[in-house]
Amino acid sequence: MKLTGFVLAVRFNRSFSIDDNIGSIVDDILLHKSQLFNEKLFETINSYQNARVLLSKQGHKLTINIDNIILEYQTPYDFEKNFEKYLNPHCS
């Protein structure tokens, strides 16, 4: 079986303050100097009532709404090899 992606979700108590600040939250993600999460990765933003969805050409998706944050990440073709490289030193 080949790993093609993974999903990481954080669920919290419904918070309407997230809806009030969702634009600022998205700006912080897109304008951060991170090497992975920034405007180069997420080129498209879809706005829905109480939610924003950041999309990438590679198929990654970050959903932020008043109940949770969900990251859907598509793995590169050599993910398993690279993942094993990180696990092997710790699994002896």
What can you see in these coordinates?
With 92 residues, the protein is of the alpha+beta class. It has one domain (5-90). It is built from two helices and five strands, in the order E-H-E-E-E-E-H. It has helices at residues 16-31, 79-87; strands at residues 5-11, 44-48, 51-55, 61-65, 68-74. A five-stranded antiparallel β-sheet has the order 1-5-4-3-2, with helices on one face. The two termini are 24 Å apart.
Looking at this protein, list some descriptive labels.
92 residues, alpha+beta, 2 helices, 27% helix
SSE layout and pairings?
Elements: E1 5-11, H1 16-31, E2 44-48, E3 51-55, E4 61-65, E5 68-74, H2 79-87
Antiparallel strand pairs: 1-5, 2-3, 3-4, 4-5
| Average pLDDT metric | 82
How many helix segments?
2
Work out the number of β strands: 5
N- to C-terminal separation? 24 Å
Helix content: 25-40%
Structural domain tally? 1
Write a brief structural summary:
This protein has helices spanning 16-31, 79-87, and strands at residues 5-11, 44-48, 51-55, 61-65, 68-74. It is α+β, with helices and mostly antiparallel strands and 92 residues long.
